Amino acid sequence: MVRAGLSAERVVAAAAELADEVGFENVTVSALARRFGVKDASLYSHIKNLQDLRTRLALHAGAELIEQIAAAVAGRAGKDALAAFAGAYRTYACRHPGRYAATQIRVDQSLVAGSPALRRTAEITYGMLRAYGLEEPDLTDAVRLLRSTFHGYCTIESMGGFGAPRDVEASWDKAVEALHGALEHWPREKKKDDD
Fold it and tell me: What are phi and psi of 47, to 5 degrees?
């Protein structure tokens, strides 16, 4: 019997809150059940197991993140779009550390293909990068560069790892400016017929 008031959506939303409070790695079915005041078994009507819960949380957080990015980049192009994208990414990572950590797990590709939010992530990210004149395989390389830079910066910042007296915000702005320069002068992949 399904407990009144519980749904998969409520369980995932509570898991997102819990992740921000205690860290993504500490989200368990037991901890979530305690939050609802129910036994673990009550949650299994809504999720299959811990992996399913974490995957749903990753998809939920990914959808939240891309909504913020989409709102930030709307109507912008080039450096303005890149700065808005980067700022929204960093803001989400700082405000929602547990949810952000969830977005970094590898999700089964069949679930990615079926997720409108994750498809939208690709559309917005690749659309922004196409404004720099990039095509595959350079698009994928550029996405990896941005993700690595943003993730690395946000992770180090969240751990208090930047100890130099230089203002962290100024360094972030400089990093985004450097990325813009790199994208404008991207070393494009030679096509086979260019040889």
Answer: -135, 155
